[in-house]
Amino acid sequence: xxxxxxxxxxxxxxxxxxxxxxxxxxxxxxxxxxxxxxxxxxxxxxxxxxxxxxxxxxxxxxxxxxxxxxxxxxxxxxxxxxxxxxxxxxxxxxxxxxxxxxxxxxxxxxxxxxxxxxxxxxxxxxxxxxxxxxxxxxxxxxxxxxxxxxxxxxxxxxxxxxxxxxxxxxxxxxxxxxxxxxxxxxxxxxxxxxxxxxxxxxxxxxxxxxxxxxxxxxxxxxxxxxxxxxxxxxxxxxxxxxxxxxxxxxxxxxxxxxxxxxxxxxxxxxxxxxxxxxxxxxxxxxxxxxxxxxxxxxxxxxxxxxxxxxxxxxxxxxxxxxxxxxxxxxxxxxxxxxxxxxxxxxxxxxxxxxxxxxxxxxxxxxxxxxxxxxxxxxxxxxxxxxxxxxxxxxxxxxxxxxxxxxxxxxxxxxxxxxxxxxxxxxxxxxxxxxxxxxxxxxxxxxxxxxxxxxxxxxxxxxxxxxxxxxxxxxxxxxxxxxxxxxxxxxxxxxxxxxxxxxxxxxxxxxxxxxxxxxxxx
Length: 521
Ligand code: KIV
Ligand code: ZN
What we know:
By secondary structure, the chain is an alpha/beta fold. It contains 17 helices and 16 strands. Helix content is 41%, strand content 21%.
Protein backbone atom coordinates (compact mmCIF):
# COMPACT_ATOMS: atom_id res chain seq x y z
CA UNK A 1 0.00 0.00 0.00
CA UNK A 2 1.43 3.37 -0.96
CA UNK A 3 1.57 6.14 1.62
CA UNK A 4 -1.23 8.01 -0.13
CA UNK A 5 -3.69 5.09 0.09
CA UNK A 6 -5.81 5.58 3.19
CA UNK A 7 -5.65 2.80 5.78
CA UNK A 8 -9.08 1.26 6.26
CA UNK A 9 -10.17 1.35 9.90
CA UNK A 10 -12.85 -1.09 10.99
CA UNK A 11 -15.67 0.35 13.03
CA UNK A 12 -16.80 -2.06 15.73
CA UNK A 13 -20.00 -0.78 17.27
CA UNK A 14 -20.88 -1.89 20.78
CA UNK A 15 -23.97 0.27 21.40
CA UNK A 16 -26.04 -2.86 21.90
CA UNK A 17 -23.60 -4.38 24.42
CA UNK A 18 -21.38 -1.88 26.26
CA UNK A 19 -23.75 0.98 25.41
CA UNK A 20 -26.73 -0.91 26.70
CA UNK A 21 -24.90 -1.38 30.01
CA UNK A 22 -25.20 2.35 30.77
CA UNK A 23 -27.61 2.93 33.62
CA UNK A 24 -31.15 3.41 32.35
CA UNK A 25 -30.31 2.53 28.73
CA UNK A 26 -31.50 -1.06 28.63
CA UNK A 27 -33.47 -1.91 25.51
CA UNK A 28 -35.97 -4.61 24.76
CA UNK A 29 -35.90 -6.92 21.76
CA UNK A 30 -37.88 -4.73 19.35
CA UNK A 31 -35.78 -1.70 20.26
CA UNK A 32 -32.52 -3.62 19.81
CA UNK A 33 -33.63 -4.82 16.39
CA UNK A 34 -34.45 -1.26 15.37
CA UNK A 35 -30.99 -0.07 16.49
CA UNK A 36 -29.30 -3.06 14.81
CA UNK A 37 -30.94 -2.21 11.50
CA UNK A 38 -29.90 1.42 11.83
CA UNK A 39 -26.29 0.40 12.58
CA UNK A 40 -26.27 -1.83 9.54
CA UNK A 41 -27.60 1.05 7.41
CA UNK A 42 -24.91 3.27 8.90
CA UNK A 43 -22.27 0.87 7.62
CA UNK A 44 -20.57 -0.42 10.76
CA UNK A 45 -18.17 -3.29 10.06
CA UNK A 46 -18.86 -5.23 13.25
CA UNK A 47 -21.89 -5.01 15.52
CA UNK A 48 -21.56 -6.38 19.05
CA UNK A 49 -25.14 -7.49 19.59
CA UNK A 50 -24.91 -8.49 23.25
CA UNK A 51 -23.56 -10.81 25.91
CA UNK A 52 -25.64 -13.96 25.38
CA UNK A 53 -24.94 -15.65 28.73
CA UNK A 54 -25.97 -12.51 30.65
CA UNK A 55 -29.72 -13.11 30.47
CA UNK A 56 -32.34 -14.83 28.31
CA UNK A 57 -33.22 -11.40 26.91
CA UNK A 58 -29.62 -10.81 25.82
CA UNK A 59 -29.45 -14.27 24.28
CA UNK A 60 -32.69 -13.77 22.36
CA UNK A 61 -31.57 -10.37 21.07
CA UNK A 62 -28.23 -11.69 19.78
CA UNK A 63 -29.99 -14.63 18.14
CA UNK A 64 -32.61 -12.45 16.44
CA UNK A 65 -30.01 -9.95 15.24
CA UNK A 66 -27.77 -12.74 13.95
CA UNK A 67 -30.71 -14.23 12.10
CA UNK A 68 -32.14 -11.08 10.57
CA UNK A 69 -29.35 -8.55 10.02
CA UNK A 70 -27.24 -9.00 6.90
CA UNK A 71 -24.05 -7.09 6.10
CA UNK A 72 -22.00 -6.41 9.21
CA UNK A 73 -20.22 -9.10 11.22
CA UNK A 74 -22.41 -9.95 14.21
CA UNK A 75 -20.45 -10.40 17.40
CA UNK A 76 -21.35 -11.90 20.78
CA UNK A 77 -19.39 -11.43 24.01
CA UNK A 78 -18.23 -14.28 26.24
CA UNK A 79 -15.91 -14.71 29.18
CA UNK A 80 -13.15 -17.26 28.72
CA UNK A 81 -15.16 -20.25 29.91
CA UNK A 82 -16.95 -23.05 28.08
CA UNK A 83 -20.46 -22.12 29.24
CA UNK A 84 -20.22 -18.52 28.01
CA UNK A 85 -18.60 -19.46 24.71
CA UNK A 86 -21.06 -22.27 23.94
CA UNK A 87 -23.98 -19.96 24.70
CA UNK A 88 -22.49 -17.21 22.53
CA UNK A 89 -22.20 -19.57 19.60
CA UNK A 90 -25.72 -20.88 20.14
CA UNK A 91 -26.94 -17.30 19.72
CA UNK A 92 -24.66 -16.45 16.80
CA UNK A 93 -24.76 -19.51 14.62
CA UNK A 94 -27.32 -18.18 12.10
CA UNK A 95 -25.26 -15.07 11.36
CA UNK A 96 -24.05 -14.53 7.82
CA UNK A 97 -20.67 -13.66 9.39
CA UNK A 98 -20.20 -14.35 13.10
CA UNK A 99 -17.53 -13.31 15.56
CA UNK A 100 -17.04 -14.63 19.09
CA UNK A 101 -15.48 -12.03 21.37
CA UNK A 102 -13.80 -13.59 24.41
CA UNK A 103 -12.36 -11.49 27.19
CA UNK A 104 -10.27 -11.97 30.29
CA UNK A 105 -8.75 -9.40 32.61
CA UNK A 106 -4.96 -9.17 32.53
CA UNK A 107 -3.95 -6.29 34.85
CA UNK A 108 -2.34 -6.98 38.22
CA UNK A 109 -5.27 -5.34 40.03
CA UNK A 110 -7.82 -7.58 38.33
CA UNK A 111 -5.64 -10.71 38.59
CA UNK A 112 -5.10 -10.23 42.28
CA UNK A 113 -8.41 -8.88 43.56
CA UNK A 114 -11.02 -10.07 41.10
CA UNK A 115 -9.79 -13.28 39.52
CA UNK A 116 -7.21 -14.45 42.08
CA UNK A 117 -5.20 -15.98 39.27
CA UNK A 118 -1.49 -16.02 38.46
CA UNK A 119 -0.02 -14.80 35.19
CA UNK A 120 0.44 -18.40 34.01
CA UNK A 121 -3.18 -19.22 34.79
CA UNK A 122 -4.34 -16.15 32.86
CA UNK A 123 -2.37 -17.17 29.78
CA UNK A 124 -3.69 -20.72 30.03
CA UNK A 125 -7.32 -19.52 30.40
CA UNK A 126 -6.99 -17.06 27.52
CA UNK A 127 -5.59 -19.77 25.25
CA UNK A 128 -8.27 -22.30 26.14
CA UNK A 129 -11.00 -19.68 25.65
CA UNK A 130 -9.74 -18.71 22.20
CA UNK A 131 -9.40 -22.39 21.22
CA UNK A 132 -12.91 -23.22 22.37
CA UNK A 133 -14.31 -20.28 20.40
CA UNK A 134 -12.27 -21.34 17.38
CA UNK A 135 -13.95 -24.73 17.43
CA UNK A 136 -17.15 -22.88 16.42
CA UNK A 137 -16.03 -20.15 14.01
CA UNK A 138 -12.84 -18.70 12.61
CA UNK A 139 -13.39 -15.02 13.48
CA UNK A 140 -12.26 -14.70 17.10
CA UNK A 141 -11.57 -11.52 19.03
CA UNK A 142 -9.65 -11.64 22.29
CA UNK A 143 -9.85 -8.70 24.72
CA UNK A 144 -7.31 -8.27 27.48
CA UNK A 145 -9.64 -6.49 29.90
CA UNK A 146 -7.94 -3.55 31.65
CA UNK A 147 -5.10 -3.82 29.11
CA UNK A 148 -4.26 -0.14 29.60
CA UNK A 149 -3.21 -0.89 33.21
CA UNK A 150 -1.50 -4.21 32.44
CA UNK A 151 2.29 -4.58 32.73
CA UNK A 152 3.48 -4.25 29.12
CA UNK A 153 5.68 -7.39 29.22
CA UNK A 154 2.80 -9.49 30.43
CA UNK A 155 0.38 -7.93 27.95
CA UNK A 156 2.77 -8.85 25.10
CA UNK A 157 2.94 -12.42 26.43
CA UNK A 158 -0.86 -12.86 26.63
CA UNK A 159 -1.40 -11.30 23.20
CA UNK A 160 1.18 -13.56 21.58
CA UNK A 161 -0.39 -16.64 23.18
CA UNK A 162 -3.92 -15.59 22.14
CA UNK A 163 -2.81 -15.09 18.52
CA UNK A 164 -0.99 -18.43 18.56
CA UNK A 165 -4.22 -20.02 19.76
CA UNK A 166 -6.09 -18.52 16.79
CA UNK A 167 -7.35 -15.04 17.76
CA UNK A 168 -7.76 -12.90 14.65
CA UNK A 169 -8.45 -9.60 16.44
CA UNK A 170 -6.70 -8.42 19.59
CA UNK A 171 -8.49 -5.74 21.52
CA UNK A 172 -6.75 -3.36 23.91
CA UNK A 173 -9.38 -1.98 26.27
CA UNK A 174 -8.91 0.99 28.53
CA UNK A 175 -11.61 -0.48 30.73
CA UNK A 176 -11.60 2.23 33.38
CA UNK A 177 -10.82 5.21 31.14
CA UNK A 178 -7.46 5.79 32.82
CA UNK A 179 -4.97 6.13 29.99
CA UNK A 180 -3.86 9.17 27.98
CA UNK A 181 -3.27 9.54 24.23
CA UNK A 182 0.53 9.39 24.47
CA UNK A 183 0.41 6.29 26.66
CA UNK A 184 -2.17 4.60 24.43
CA UNK A 185 -0.07 5.21 21.33
CA UNK A 186 3.02 3.84 23.11
CA UNK A 187 1.12 0.70 24.15
CA UNK A 188 -0.10 0.00 20.61
CA UNK A 189 3.36 0.63 19.23
CA UNK A 190 4.94 -1.69 21.82
CA UNK A 191 2.54 -4.48 20.86
CA UNK A 192 3.29 -3.96 17.16
CA UNK A 193 7.06 -3.91 17.77
CA UNK A 194 7.37 -6.66 20.33
CA UNK A 195 4.75 -9.36 19.66
CA UNK A 196 6.32 -11.59 16.99
CA UNK A 197 3.05 -12.89 15.48
CA UNK A 198 1.17 -9.55 15.64
CA UNK A 199 0.89 -9.44 11.83
CA UNK A 200 -1.61 -12.34 12.06
CA UNK A 201 -4.17 -10.23 13.93
CA UNK A 202 -5.90 -6.89 13.71
CA UNK A 203 -5.15 -4.62 16.66
CA UNK A 204 -8.17 -2.90 18.13
CA UNK A 205 -8.79 -0.28 20.80
CA UNK A 206 -11.71 0.05 23.20
CA UNK A 207 -11.65 3.24 25.25
CA UNK A 208 -13.88 4.40 28.07
CA UNK A 209 -14.48 8.08 28.74
CA UNK A 210 -13.96 8.50 32.49
CA UNK A 211 -11.45 11.30 31.92
CA UNK A 212 -13.13 12.54 28.75
CA UNK A 213 -10.31 11.07 26.65
CA UNK A 214 -11.96 8.11 24.91
CA UNK A 215 -12.02 9.68 21.45
CA UNK A 216 -8.53 11.17 21.79
CA UNK A 217 -7.16 7.84 23.03
CA UNK A 218 -8.80 5.94 20.16
CA UNK A 219 -7.37 8.38 17.61
CA UNK A 220 -3.94 7.99 19.21
CA UNK A 221 -4.27 4.20 18.94
CA UNK A 222 -5.14 4.51 15.26
CA UNK A 223 -2.26 6.87 14.58
CA UNK A 224 0.04 4.30 16.22
CA UNK A 225 -1.24 1.46 14.03
CA UNK A 226 -4.51 0.10 15.47
CA UNK A 227 -6.92 -0.99 12.73
CA UNK A 228 -10.19 -1.30 14.61
CA UNK A 229 -12.00 1.12 16.89
CA UNK A 230 -14.67 -0.01 19.33
CA UNK A 231 -17.24 2.69 19.95
CA UNK A 232 -20.91 3.48 20.56
CA UNK A 233 -23.49 5.85 19.15
CA UNK A 234 -23.59 9.06 21.24
CA UNK A 235 -20.74 7.57 23.30
CA UNK A 236 -23.18 5.78 25.60
CA UNK A 237 -21.77 3.08 27.84
CA UNK A 238 -20.65 2.11 31.32
CA UNK A 239 -20.21 5.10 33.67
CA UNK A 240 -19.04 8.07 31.56
CA UNK A 241 -19.46 5.99 28.42
CA UNK A 242 -17.37 4.73 25.52
CA UNK A 243 -15.63 6.33 22.58
CA UNK A 244 -18.30 8.14 20.56
CA UNK A 245 -18.65 6.66 17.06
CA UNK A 246 -19.74 9.87 15.38
CA UNK A 247 -16.88 11.89 16.86
CA UNK A 248 -14.11 9.42 16.10
CA UNK A 249 -15.36 8.77 12.57
CA UNK A 250 -15.74 12.46 11.72
CA UNK A 251 -12.35 13.28 13.25
CA UNK A 252 -10.69 10.76 10.95
CA UNK A 253 -12.71 11.94 7.97
CA UNK A 254 -12.28 15.67 8.53
CA UNK A 255 -8.58 15.23 9.28
CA UNK A 256 -7.85 12.59 6.65
CA UNK A 257 -4.88 14.80 5.69
CA UNK A 258 -3.42 13.90 9.09
CA UNK A 259 -4.67 10.37 9.81
CA UNK A 260 -4.78 9.10 6.23
CA UNK A 261 -7.52 6.62 7.12
CA UNK A 262 -10.96 5.77 5.83
CA UNK A 263 -14.00 3.94 7.21
CA UNK A 264 -17.10 2.39 5.68
CA UNK A 265 -19.42 4.69 7.66
CA UNK A 266 -22.06 6.55 5.68
CA UNK A 267 -21.61 9.82 7.52
CA UNK A 268 -24.96 11.25 6.43
CA UNK A 269 -26.62 8.53 8.56
CA UNK A 270 -24.90 9.77 11.75
CA UNK A 271 -27.54 12.27 12.91
CA UNK A 272 -30.55 10.00 12.21
CA UNK A 273 -28.82 7.09 14.00
CA UNK A 274 -27.86 9.31 16.92
CA UNK A 275 -31.46 10.53 17.28
CA UNK A 276 -32.84 7.04 17.05
CA UNK A 277 -30.53 5.73 19.78
CA UNK A 278 -31.26 8.76 21.93
CA UNK A 279 -35.01 8.27 21.60
CA UNK A 280 -34.86 4.53 22.19
CA UNK A 281 -32.59 4.72 25.23
CA UNK A 282 -34.17 7.89 26.63
CA UNK A 283 -30.66 9.36 26.91
CA UNK A 284 -30.68 12.92 25.61
CA UNK A 285 -27.83 14.22 23.50
CA UNK A 286 -26.42 17.42 24.97
CA UNK A 287 -27.02 20.44 22.74
CA UNK A 288 -23.35 21.22 22.32
CA UNK A 289 -22.28 17.61 21.66
CA UNK A 290 -19.79 17.48 18.80
CA UNK A 291 -21.17 16.33 15.42
CA UNK A 292 -24.74 15.44 16.45
CA UNK A 293 -25.75 18.02 19.08
CA UNK A 294 -28.43 20.53 18.11
CA UNK A 295 -25.94 23.39 18.36
CA UNK A 296 -23.05 21.60 16.65
CA UNK A 297 -23.42 23.75 13.54
CA UNK A 298 -25.14 26.84 15.00
CA UNK A 299 -23.10 30.02 14.59
CA UNK A 300 -24.17 32.69 17.04
CA UNK A 301 -21.36 35.25 17.12
CA UNK A 302 -21.73 38.12 14.66
CA UNK A 303 -18.15 37.82 13.47
CA UNK A 304 -18.66 34.15 12.74
CA UNK A 305 -21.93 34.76 10.89
CA UNK A 306 -20.26 37.44 8.84
CA UNK A 307 -17.38 35.11 7.98
CA UNK A 308 -19.79 32.31 7.09
CA UNK A 309 -21.67 34.57 4.70
CA UNK A 310 -18.41 35.49 2.96
CA UNK A 311 -17.10 31.92 2.81
CA UNK A 312 -18.36 28.94 4.83
CA UNK A 313 -14.84 27.56 5.26
CA UNK A 314 -13.95 30.50 7.53
CA UNK A 315 -15.73 28.91 10.47
CA UNK A 316 -17.01 25.54 9.23
CA UNK A 317 -14.82 22.42 9.07
CA UNK A 318 -17.66 20.04 8.17
CA UNK A 319 -20.95 20.64 6.41
CA UNK A 320 -24.09 19.84 8.44
CA UNK A 321 -25.44 17.80 5.54
CA UNK A 322 -22.32 15.59 5.63
CA UNK A 323 -23.41 14.23 9.01
CA UNK A 324 -27.10 14.08 8.18
CA UNK A 325 -28.62 17.33 9.44
CA UNK A 326 -31.39 17.95 6.97
CA UNK A 327 -31.60 21.48 5.66
CA UNK A 328 -35.33 21.67 6.18
CA UNK A 329 -37.65 20.08 8.66
CA UNK A 330 -40.07 18.82 6.02
CA UNK A 331 -43.59 19.57 7.13
CA UNK A 332 -46.31 16.97 6.71
CA UNK A 333 -50.03 17.62 7.14
CA UNK A 334 -53.56 16.35 6.69
CA UNK A 335 -53.12 15.70 2.99
CA UNK A 336 -49.78 13.91 3.15
CA UNK A 337 -49.98 10.32 2.04
CA UNK A 338 -48.55 7.05 3.25
CA UNK A 339 -45.59 7.25 0.83
CA UNK A 340 -44.51 10.66 2.16
CA UNK A 341 -44.78 9.37 5.71
CA UNK A 342 -42.79 6.21 4.90
CA UNK A 343 -40.14 8.35 3.27
CA UNK A 344 -39.91 10.60 6.34
CA UNK A 345 -39.65 7.60 8.67
CA UNK A 346 -36.79 6.23 6.57
CA UNK A 347 -35.03 9.60 6.62
CA UNK A 348 -35.35 9.63 10.40
CA UNK A 349 -33.56 6.29 10.62
CA UNK A 350 -36.52 3.92 11.05
CA UNK A 351 -37.21 0.90 8.87
CA UNK A 352 -40.86 0.04 9.39
CA UNK A 353 -42.68 -3.14 8.42
CA UNK A 354 -45.92 -2.81 6.41
CA UNK A 355 -47.90 -3.41 9.59
CA UNK A 356 -45.94 -0.80 11.56
CA UNK A 357 -46.34 1.73 8.76
CA UNK A 358 -50.10 1.19 8.68
CA UNK A 359 -50.35 1.70 12.47
CA UNK A 360 -48.19 4.82 12.18
CA UNK A 361 -50.32 6.16 9.36
CA UNK A 362 -53.50 5.68 11.42
CA UNK A 363 -51.96 7.64 14.31
CA UNK A 364 -50.61 10.25 11.93
CA UNK A 365 -54.11 10.91 10.57
CA UNK A 366 -55.49 11.35 14.09
CA UNK A 367 -52.66 13.77 14.87
CA UNK A 368 -53.20 15.67 11.61
CA UNK A 369 -56.77 16.38 12.72
CA UNK A 370 -55.46 18.01 15.89
CA UNK A 371 -52.38 19.71 14.52
CA UNK A 372 -51.88 21.59 11.27
CA UNK A 373 -48.15 21.06 10.72
CA UNK A 374 -46.49 17.79 11.59
CA UNK A 375 -42.71 18.05 11.93
CA UNK A 376 -39.96 15.43 11.99
CA UNK A 377 -39.95 15.44 15.78
CA UNK A 378 -43.67 14.63 15.88
CA UNK A 379 -43.23 11.73 13.44
CA UNK A 380 -40.29 10.37 15.44
CA UNK A 381 -42.33 10.61 18.65
CA UNK A 382 -45.21 8.67 17.09
CA UNK A 383 -42.87 5.96 15.82
CA UNK A 384 -41.05 5.74 19.12
CA UNK A 385 -44.31 5.43 21.00
CA UNK A 386 -45.26 2.57 18.75
CA UNK A 387 -41.95 0.74 19.04
CA UNK A 388 -41.68 1.04 22.80
CA UNK A 389 -45.36 0.22 23.31
CA UNK A 390 -45.53 -2.71 20.91
CA UNK A 391 -42.40 -4.14 22.42
CA UNK A 392 -43.99 -4.44 25.84
CA UNK A 393 -47.62 -5.46 25.64
CA UNK A 394 -49.61 -5.35 28.86
CA UNK A 395 -51.64 -2.56 30.41
CA UNK A 396 -53.09 0.08 28.15
CA UNK A 397 -54.97 3.31 28.70
CA UNK A 398 -58.69 3.23 27.96
CA UNK A 399 -59.59 6.68 29.30
CA UNK A 400 -58.76 9.23 31.94
CA UNK A 401 -60.48 12.22 33.48
CA UNK A 402 -58.69 14.87 35.47
CA UNK A 403 -60.17 17.29 38.01
CA UNK A 404 -57.73 19.93 39.09
CA UNK A 405 -57.65 23.61 39.98
CA UNK A 406 -56.45 26.19 42.48
CA UNK A 407 -57.22 25.22 46.06
CA UNK A 408 -58.58 21.77 45.17
CA UNK A 409 -56.82 18.42 45.55
CA UNK A 410 -56.26 17.04 42.02
CA UNK A 411 -57.94 13.78 41.27
CA UNK A 412 -57.65 11.36 38.36
CA UNK A 413 -60.23 8.82 37.24
CA UNK A 414 -58.27 6.21 35.34
CA UNK A 415 -59.50 3.28 33.28
CA UNK A 416 -56.96 0.71 32.14
CA UNK A 417 -57.24 -2.61 30.39
CA UNK A 418 -54.96 -5.62 30.35
CA UNK A 419 -54.19 -6.76 26.79
CA UNK A 420 -57.34 -5.01 25.59
CA UNK A 421 -59.60 -6.93 28.02
CA UNK A 422 -61.03 -6.47 31.53
CA UNK A 423 -61.21 -2.71 32.01
CA UNK A 424 -60.47 -1.59 35.55
CA UNK A 425 -61.34 1.86 36.88
CA UNK A 426 -59.91 3.73 39.85
CA UNK A 427 -60.34 7.24 41.17
CA UNK A 428 -57.33 8.68 42.96
CA UNK A 429 -56.33 11.94 44.57
CA UNK A 430 -52.73 13.13 44.72
CA UNK A 431 -50.50 16.10 45.51
CA UNK A 432 -50.68 16.99 41.85
CA UNK A 433 -52.03 15.38 38.65
CA UNK A 434 -48.77 13.45 38.08
CA UNK A 435 -48.72 12.12 41.61
CA UNK A 436 -52.38 11.09 41.29
CA UNK A 437 -51.62 9.33 38.00
CA UNK A 438 -48.74 7.37 39.59
CA UNK A 439 -50.95 6.32 42.51
CA UNK A 440 -53.82 5.29 40.26
CA UNK A 441 -51.56 3.16 38.03
CA UNK A 442 -50.07 1.49 41.13
CA UNK A 443 -53.51 0.74 42.55
CA UNK A 444 -54.80 -0.85 39.35
CA UNK A 445 -51.68 -2.78 38.31
CA UNK A 446 -50.41 -3.73 41.76
CA UNK A 447 -46.87 -2.67 40.73
CA UNK A 448 -45.11 -0.38 43.24
CA UNK A 449 -43.14 2.43 41.65
CA UNK A 450 -40.71 5.02 42.98
CA UNK A 451 -40.27 7.87 40.53
CA UNK A 452 -36.58 8.64 40.04
CA UNK A 453 -36.82 10.95 37.09
CA UNK A 454 -39.59 12.71 35.21
CA UNK A 455 -38.91 14.65 32.03
CA UNK A 456 -41.21 16.43 29.62
CA UNK A 457 -40.03 17.78 26.33
CA UNK A 458 -41.58 19.07 23.20
CA UNK A 459 -41.08 16.84 20.16
CA UNK A 460 -41.20 19.72 17.67
CA UNK A 461 -42.15 23.36 17.22
CA UNK A 462 -45.25 25.19 18.36
CA UNK A 463 -47.67 25.12 21.25
CA UNK A 464 -49.51 22.19 19.74
CA UNK A 465 -46.37 20.02 19.50
CA UNK A 466 -46.42 16.47 20.79
CA UNK A 467 -45.20 16.32 24.36
CA UNK A 468 -42.79 13.50 25.11
CA UNK A 469 -42.63 12.25 28.67
CA UNK A 470 -39.84 10.02 29.94
CA UNK A 471 -40.03 8.50 33.40
CA UNK A 472 -37.44 6.47 35.21
CA UNK A 473 -38.90 4.42 38.03
CA UNK A 474 -37.47 2.10 40.60
CA UNK A 475 -39.14 -1.23 41.34
CA UNK A 476 -37.65 -3.86 43.65
CA UNK A 477 -34.18 -2.32 43.42
CA UNK A 478 -34.09 -2.05 39.61
CA UNK A 479 -34.52 0.97 37.36
CA UNK A 480 -36.92 0.96 34.45
CA UNK A 481 -37.69 3.52 31.80
CA UNK A 482 -41.03 4.46 30.31
CA UNK A 483 -41.97 6.75 27.45
CA UNK A 484 -45.21 8.31 26.35
CA UNK A 485 -46.11 10.83 23.67
CA UNK A 486 -49.27 12.82 23.12
CA UNK A 487 -50.39 16.36 22.41
CA UNK A 488 -51.99 16.07 25.87
CA UNK A 489 -49.16 16.06 28.39
CA UNK A 490 -51.16 14.34 31.16
CA UNK A 491 -52.05 11.55 28.76
CA UNK A 492 -48.36 11.34 27.74
CA UNK A 493 -47.46 11.00 31.42
CA UNK A 494 -49.94 8.17 31.99
CA UNK A 495 -48.65 6.40 28.85
CA UNK A 496 -45.06 6.74 30.08
CA UNK A 497 -45.93 5.31 33.50
CA UNK A 498 -47.78 2.41 31.86
CA UNK A 499 -44.84 1.79 29.53
CA UNK A 500 -42.54 1.44 32.56
CA UNK A 501 -45.02 -0.90 34.29
CA UNK A 502 -45.21 -3.08 31.18
CA UNK A 503 -41.42 -3.22 30.99
CA UNK A 504 -41.33 -4.37 34.60
CA UNK A 505 -43.87 -7.11 33.89
CA UNK A 506 -41.99 -8.27 30.76
CA UNK A 507 -38.61 -8.21 32.46
CA UNK A 508 -39.92 -10.14 35.46
CA UNK A 509 -41.21 -12.91 33.28
CA UNK A 510 -37.86 -13.14 31.47
CA UNK A 511 -35.50 -12.73 34.37
CA UNK A 512 -33.53 -15.65 35.71
CA UNK A 513 -31.53 -15.87 38.89
CA UNK A 514 -28.13 -15.77 37.23
CA UNK A 515 -28.00 -12.48 35.32
CA UNK A 516 -24.35 -11.45 35.02
CA UNK A 517 -22.57 -8.47 33.54
CA UNK A 518 -18.98 -8.25 32.30
CA UNK A 519 -18.12 -6.44 35.52
CA UNK A 520 -19.01 -9.61 37.44
CA UNK A 521 -16.58 -11.64 35.37
O1 KIV B 1 -14.26 -2.19 28.80
C1 KIV B 1 -13.95 -3.37 28.62
O2 KIV B 1 -12.89 -3.87 29.03
C2 KIV B 1 -14.91 -4.22 27.92
C3 KIV B 1 -14.44 -5.56 27.49
C4 KIV B 1 -15.46 -6.61 27.75
C5 KIV B 1 -14.01 -5.50 26.06
O3 KIV B 1 -16.00 -3.79 27.63
ZN1 ZN C 1 -16.02 -1.58 27.71
